[in-house]
Amino acid sequence: MNIRWEIDTESGWLYLKPGSTKEIDLKSELYRVLEHKFKQSSKSYNMEIQLIHDLRNDAFGVNIPHLQETVILKRYIYLLQKLMRLLPDDLIQFEWNNDHVSSLQQEFTNSLFQLASFYSILAVQTDVENTTETLDKKGVYFQYTAGILHHLELNYHIMLAQAQEVYYTKSVHNKIRDSVLVQLCQQIVLFYKNSVEEYADYCSLKRIYFTALSYYHYSRACHNNNKLHDQKAYLCEILKLINTVETKDLRYSKLFQDIESLKLQTINALNQIDETLIAGEIKDLPSAQLVKCLLPKDLILSEEDEDPLFSGLLSLDTIQEIEEYQLQLEEFVRNELLLPIQKLDDELARDRSLDEKIASLNSQTVPVVLEKCRDNLLALGSYERLRTLREELKDLKLECRQELDCIWSLKLPETGENETVMKSFHIYEQYLKKSIEGDELIFTQIDELTPFLRIFDNYEQLRAYLPDKEYAKLNPNLADVIKDYETLKKDMDCLDKDKANFVKSVNEKHSKIDLIELVRKDNIDVESVFKKEIVKFEKEMESLEELVKRQCEVSRQCCDLNVRFTSASKDLKVNYKFKETVNVLKSTYDGFEETLKNLNQGLEFYRNLLANITSKKGNLL
């Protein structure tokens, strides 16, 4: 912990500088912890939570502490320790010295140190009027500071030294004999040997001053006992010690004044001693400790204190135990009640496979052969492809016609070679004339096929075009199976409804079980509460058994109907109009393939013819 010491320049006393902390909404934080971490209502503890919240903000909300703040802070620290027994250390965040601290232990340590600093400030601020009452208060406050620092395992000796200084002052005021004052001063010197780093020079000055002061009181005792040789020795030693002082830190002005005053007193005492007198020897002087580390009453919580904070609050260990049993309860409900229902649902879904079979039989589905025809048509371009190829064929034929007409219009010399070439053109002319009939046949096929090919454009359109198969009408055995299955489906629907209601009832009952509240209410162990709640599901176990029996009967009937359906589905009679329509559509596809083939052959013919005409035309002279 970073301790900052300060000095009151007016009085010369050291004190602890308080840490800085910000107000926090401790009330909301505690509500959050109890509700979410401990899973318990915080309403019963509103007064205690408000008290802790107010104590912290009141204790730390002052710039200059008074005795009232120490009372408030002590109470807060005491309750904080009780809180530490209940809560995990890291659940609440505080801010100290501009750092965020998520630790109740650190909050406790910082609060204790804050109290120590408050007491040290009170000690410094206590007026010293040389009265027993004020001196006693000041001394006790320094000892409280020392006691808290000792509890925190921090350097407490400076505070004991200052407390001893207070009682030294009190002893002087009460005119205690010098031999006792010597021992008090020597003990102060011993305390100041445990100096703090930032005030090491100050502690060194204090050691010098109180060593010299102990020598001064000893010299007075020697004078009273007529030991003048020893008196002179110690007075001379005082001056030697004081002459070693080098620092002139203005913060220590009060101490310098005391040292200077002691120096003058020493010189005056020496002036009254015969200069020729030989000084005696310096020996170690005894010490006596009047102070000790004190802890304020009702500050540290004892192990024997069994008065709990938040009476009735279940501990976190108990909550964790309850959560384990809560998981066991969830597993029981899931494995023993809900999963069996899920299994029944899955089995019944398989039993309902007859739904799909009947629906498939009754549905206006497109036969596979027509689906393949449609896929092929879409891939090949259907009637759009035929129309495109027809236009290409017409264009090629026209080009051949134009080439031949051009040749017939030529005036060529009558040579043997030209005559031979012209014979070829006459043959090509015959080809063109003969192709007219074939072309017209292809064009007629395209016109006839197009309306039927359009049916394949849309799947729904194709399906709607097909007549009803009329299986049930034409197959009495199948109709009986379908009728019996419709009756059984009503039982299945009723069973599904009862299972759904069962699941809803189980979930509602389970959701209302609050093991935490039951343990708090009955004040018995968690295991007993758990067993008691499990027993309450006996009725549901009986209902589940009845549902299983009902579904077994439904499954048996479904199995029988599946066997009957399989038998009745063999060699089914189909509406003859459906068969005819399928044949017509299949023939349409076959006609498409044939026409496509003829178009490609025609295109090949005209391409070759045009190439021959062009080639022969080049042979004309």
From TrEMBL:
Record Pfam families: ALIX_LYPXL_bnd (PF13949), BRO1 (PF03097)
Gene Ontology CC, one term: endosome
GO biological process terms on file: protein transport to vacuole involved in ubiquitin-dependent protein catabolic process via the multivesicular body sorting pathway
Coiled-coil residue windows: 527-554
Keyword Coiled coil set for record: yes
UniProt keyword list: Coiled coil, Cytoplasm, Endosome
Domain of life: Eukaryota
InterPro entries linked: ALIX_V_dom, BRO1_dom, BRO1_sf
Compartments where located: Cytoplasm; Endosome
Residue stretches spanning the membrane: none
Domain BRO1 positions: 10-348
Protein name: BRO domain-containing protein 1
Species this protein is from: Pichia inconspicua
